[in-house]
Amino acid sequence: MDSALTPVLELTGIHKEFPGVKALNDAGLRLYPGEVHTLMGQNGAGKSTLIKVLTGVYTPDRGRMVLQGQEIAPASTLEAQELGISTVYQEVNLCPNLSVAENIFIGRYPRKWGMVDWRGMREAAARLLHDLEVDIDVSAPLSRYPLAIQQMVAISRALNISSRVLILDEPTSSLDEAEVQLLFRVLRRLREQGMAILFVTHFLDQTYAISDRITVMRNGEREGEYACSELSRLALVNKMIGAPAEAQPAEGAAGHGANAQAAAGLPHGSAAQGELPLAQAAPILLRARGLKRRGVLQPVDMDVREGEVLGMAGLLGSGRTELARLLFGADRADGGSIRIGSHEGIFLTPREAIGAGIGFCSEDRKLEGAILSLSVRENLVLALQARNGMLRAIPLKRQQELANDYVKALGIKTASIETPIGSLSGGNQQKVLLARWLATQPKLMILDEPTRGIDVRAKQEIMDYVTALCRKGMSILFISSELPEVLRCSDRMVVMRDRAACGEYERGQLDDESVLQVIAGEAA
Amino acid sequence: MNAQTLPVPLAASRYGSIMTHALFKPSAALAVLLLIDLIFIPGFFSLEVKDGHLYGSLIDIVNRAAPLMLAALGMTVVIATRGIDISVGAQVALSGTVACMLIAGGTPMPAALAAAIGAALLCGAWNGLLVAALKLQPIVATLILMVAGRGLAQLLTDGQIITVYYQPYFFIGSGYLLGLPFSLYIVAAVFAVVALMMKKTALGLFIQSVGINPVAARLAGLRTATLIFFTYVFCAACAGLAGLMISSNIKSADANNAGLLLELDAILAVTLGGTSLAGGKFSLAGSVIGALIIQTLTYTIYSLGVPPEVNMVVKSLVVFAVCLSQSAEFKNLWKRRK
Fold this sequence. Notes:
By secondary structure, chain A is an alpha/beta fold. Chain A is built from 18 helices and 22 strands. In chain B, the strands form three sheets. A two-stranded antiparallel sheet of chain B has the order 1-2. In chain B, strands 3-6 form a two-stranded antiparallel sheet. In chain B, strands 4-5 form a two-stranded antiparallel ribbon. The interface between A and B is medium-sized, with 35 and 28 residues.
């Protein structure tokens, strides 16, 4: 980076405290025009808080923010936008029932003779999206499109507001590879135009593919700022975790020493293979036959064995999540059957599936998981209490025990078990939701993207804990977009493509390369 | 208010200021009103015993607030699940009408009361079915019964006021037990049963979960539709009881006016009590206090000799002030000024 340039945006000495948690402690950030700057750090490192300070969602307790030589103190996102700081948030924050065009121009509808110029708006929206190489019907409601497209709409909305600084908070967590490349093309174009882009992600590959510089945050502080080319992946992971990568505690499970290596995206050869006990011989726990739902999933046959991790790979929209939802009764299958224990037939409601010993961590934490204003304890006991029934209330003392036990076992960072779950960081919320299911002691745990939007450390903690449970006989259906993760954790793997299962593989049968070929539909 | 939320307010009042307690604001508003009464209305707090009954302004207010308190209790649970029931007034009219017609026609009182409450429960089941099973928007779904319920009552009575002369029936709305109005015992009993259920069962946790995030609640294994259905049935049962009280009190069934706009007062009481219309966290005690605020306000305005034409405006101003004090946005504005 040319140090002769002055930063377009500089944050220094930012402090922000929440009840019981020091979220930001002397944090800082420098952004130069024409760069893609990646902000990295573990869950709870303060990335999201820093961005919320920057965009006027939170007011910092102390600190200075300077935009193009002028000190700023945005009091709302609107003010930040007017200053030229636009944000695309982690979870898409648009209005699903409005049209795509309305979402892009919401609050700034173009006018003609005092009336909204609907036609002009639609044309402008189509043009903006076309620039992102997304050609869709902009008059259709947003909810009709997949998350990835919604993300693009959010980005074009941010771009449309005249921006000097564009912040992308985990924009790629729900995008598939092709869409990520599309996004990066757009980012590179914007970089050439002199835009300062702040990119928050947990994906190391993407960090190295697009960034010029990296700021690493840890425990609410700025650990350091590095030129991307001068920082190795292993060094980066070390700086995020704050300990030598080799020395990480691998709680519960043996043989996860390769984790830091794998997390850093380094090649992991046969060393990582064959560590988990092979489960082929184990009896079948769940047998699904011809499970289908019209327009959503072609008939799928699948077996889950006792005590195994069954990985499920495939692109967004390949039918992974859809299959999981049918298995759990979240959506109703219109054909096929599921046999687990004494149950035979499809599940009509999640309640039935829970009764049969299935737990389900949804990919959408905010919408389908957390009950935001309830406490950690209440969120944690909810599924168990629901299974027990309303009348058999779990005594408060037992609830506290459960909550304390899981907070400790999963390393959940929270001020207390009575803290509302909404004030925890994403990774910690996810751990609470995981605990919600573990408390019901399921025979089969379905984890749909349990590590989406979560940092390396929390990911590893969650997976370690889960694999340890597998050794005690619990089965896991593990869905993830991150192929290395699926390959590393699974005993067997099902690959989904075009709303159907297209292959089932034993551990060691596939490597990254050949799975990609199966997913892409080329001969394996 | 219930077992699930208890620890937080307790902890807050133990370690922090009592002002952070959820019931502080509604209680304070009621206290201010009572203080005004103390200053401006001579003998407001005096109670006297006549024929073994307690008499006085306070008793009068509580007695008159009884139907509203009941309606507010039912409404609280519905609102906590993100719903609303605007047919409460119609249910009041219907249950009163059924009871009075049957009693006037010579049906034994227990059967008449059961029929009246049964009619209310049917109303609740109808509302619950529309909202929970057919997923109609609650305000639209209950609008149907708001019109139809009163219409049915008017049809039954031919639009006439049906008067009853049956002493035992009058006891519900104007009788005394151990020196206190009998209606208070009804309210206390309903409150106690519901509060006990919140404390001893997981009902409170379930209602809040459904109110805050229905999708997540269903995935966690809750019977969300069943729960929502029964909140409307409960709300209707409360309205039915209120209908008996009102008709017994005026010794007649007035299908045109009984419980008219009671639903709005009930919603107001719930709001004044600190329960958000967005659903989720709720406070039964808050709603009872809210109902008392409304009745005390009415009483105060009349007693102070404010001309009737000013009455509504004054009432709305007070309500506006209380609501403003609960607005987070307003609080932020206030802080920023300072």
